Write a sequence for this structure.
């Protein structure tokens, strides 16, 4: 969207900008909470151990860290019964194939039961609060109301079928629910769980270079630096210097990726000149191991200024922190002091997971602010949602180039477009999961996941729970595919002693 | 010394394979492989630029 608006020189309207910020904001909040409870928590929380918990003691624990109302012994007894029925059935359902009982699990049974209870609560909560996106974006996922030049959602205080005072009140109510859960459940749980795993503040740092494009625009032009969360680049964990972002420094090579470049696979290309010619040279499935000296991934070797770079909430929070962002600094300081660790602890698996929580809190706090901005515009009589000056292709130049930089929940997302005669001549997307999961490049530099895994302790190679902790801390998104696992398939772990 | 491969990594979006060399109770080297091809760039060629957002948001 921003790439095309940038190519055609389109400025969007205030209302469109604010609505885009609100949708993006609730996506951060919902995605991060789902990631913590449903994709990452079970790397730290042993569901089966929760059976040994005393519901009354669990209630005391929950009440000691938060005044969230669902914390009575009766409540935890009911959750305990639910888990017991599941485990005794022999069919663990959503909790199947975990490494339950693994020696790297350290939480006491009561903390495990509390976390399992909140895993279930978070499922209901996320369904509720994402109605903010459903209201403004028509549905979730894949909102439908985006439009080059603005948004396709009418604002009319006098219509039942448009954004009006009623919908603003509804949005405010959902934003309140979103923030309450983050403040009273997610953050206390995160701190409680983290306090048992502090050694993970020294594991999983990875490449130590952090990129953010900056997000939540305060003005209406693509790629503006006038944003709520600043963009920047931190090199080699140096928090005393944040470099400005230059999109020309983004390159991709295919030295270890299954593509062919016309002028050499190890030549790094800027996305404007990007090529996407698949060239699978890997083994024929099923195979035991890849030949990692050659090409071994469908992800290109994405680099910034030639360096392997991490993107995501940790990058955004480090850049905001190092740039002096007031609220981020406060919350980072609070989290570090509660855990009794210094800022260097952020460069780790635990830091990545904590930064996601910090970002969720500060973003949830902004949702009501943006909704108020929108309400104030409407009240003042500004209902403009779309700038259609350059909608008609006859107003476009014969050739145009544009880029759009955005911070998706999982990190830096850039699109580059070349338009010729009103049609797309080239398009390249460089996505957050690509940055983090990228393979080695022509110089042999490891990608962020690869670097973060080196030196990770492994108690049992047959049950590599520790690998999952670090990989999940990045919140991988390998192109958001529909993914099915056959229950009769081979085991997902292959180990060969060499 | 052991080499391990985890494929697929679950509780993520999409398809990811990790291979790791484990020695003395620690990972000594690792490789990350995206095992699914995306190809959205090819789908977009020749399209109306005003439709790109709707197609790319499916990634």
């Amino acid at each position: 969207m921003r790439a095309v608006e940038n190519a055609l020189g389109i400025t969007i309207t205030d209302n469109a900008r604010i609505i885009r910020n609100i949708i993006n904001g609730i996506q951060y909040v919902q995605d991060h909470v789902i990631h913590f409870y449903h994709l990452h928590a079970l790397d730290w929380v042993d569901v089966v151990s929760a059976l040994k918990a005393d519901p009354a003691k669990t209630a005391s624990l929950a009440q000691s860290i938060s005044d969230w109302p669902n914390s009575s012994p009766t409540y935890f007894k009911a959750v305990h019964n639910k888990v017991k029925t599941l485990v005794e059935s022999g069919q663990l359902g959503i909790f199947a194939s975990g490494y339950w009982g693994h020696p790297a699990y350290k939480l006491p049974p009561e903390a495990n039961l509390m976390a399992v209870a909140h895993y279930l609560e978070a499922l209901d909560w996320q369904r509720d609060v994402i109605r903010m996106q459903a209201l403004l974006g028509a549905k979730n996922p894949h909102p439908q109301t985006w439009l080059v030049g603005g948004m396709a959602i009418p604002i009319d205080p006098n219509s039942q079928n448009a954004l009006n005072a009623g919908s603003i009140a509804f949005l405010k109510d959902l934003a309140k629910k979103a923030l309450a859960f983050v403040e009273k459940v997610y953050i206390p749980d995160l701190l409680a769980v983290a306090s048992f795993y502090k050694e993970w503040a020294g594991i999983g740092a990875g490449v130590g270079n952090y990129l953010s494009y900056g997000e939540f625009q305060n003005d209406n032009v693509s790629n503006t630096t006038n944003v709520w969360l600043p963009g920047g680049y931190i090199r080699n964990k140096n928090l005393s210097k944040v470099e400005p972002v230059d999109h020309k420094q983004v390159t991709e090579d295919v030295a270890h990726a299954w593509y062919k470049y016309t002028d050499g696979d190890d030549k790094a290309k800027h996305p404007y000149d990007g090529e996407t010619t698949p060239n699978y040279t890997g083994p024929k499935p099923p195979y035991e191991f890849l030949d990692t000296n050659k090409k071994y991934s469908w992800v290109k070797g994405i680099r910034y200024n030639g360096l392997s770079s991490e993107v995501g909430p940790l990058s955004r929070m480090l850049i905001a922190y190092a740039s002096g962002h007031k609220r981020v600094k406060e919350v980072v300081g609070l989290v570090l002091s509660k855990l009794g660790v210094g800022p260097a602890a952020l460069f780790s698996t635990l830091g990545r997971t904590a930064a996601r929580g910090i970002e969720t809190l500060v973003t949830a706090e902004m949702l009501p602010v943006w909704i108020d901005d929108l309400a104030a515009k409407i009240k003042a009589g500004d209902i403009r949602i779309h700038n259609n000056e350059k909608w008609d292709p006859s107003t476009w130049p014969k050739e145009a180039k544009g880029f759009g930089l955005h911070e998706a929940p999982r990190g830096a997302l850039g699109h580059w477009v070349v338009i010729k005669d009103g049609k797309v001549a080239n398009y390249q997307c460089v996505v957050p999961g690509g940055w983090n999961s990228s393979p080695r490049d022509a110089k042999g530099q490891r990608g962020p996941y690869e670097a973060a895994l080196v030196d990770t302790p492994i108690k049992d190679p047959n049950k590599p729970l520790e690998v999952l902790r670090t990989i999940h801390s990045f919140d991988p998104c390998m192109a958001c595919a529909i993914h099915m696992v056959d229950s009769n398939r081979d085991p997902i772990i292959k180990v060969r002693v060499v | 010394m052991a080499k391990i491969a985890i494929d697929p990594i679950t509780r993520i979006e999409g398809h990811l394979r990790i291979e790791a060399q484990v020695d003395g109770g620690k990972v000594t080297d690792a490789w990350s492989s995206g095992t699914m091809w995306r190809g959205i760039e090819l789908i977009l060629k020749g399209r109306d630029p005003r439709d790109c957002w709707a197609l790319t948001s499916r990634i």
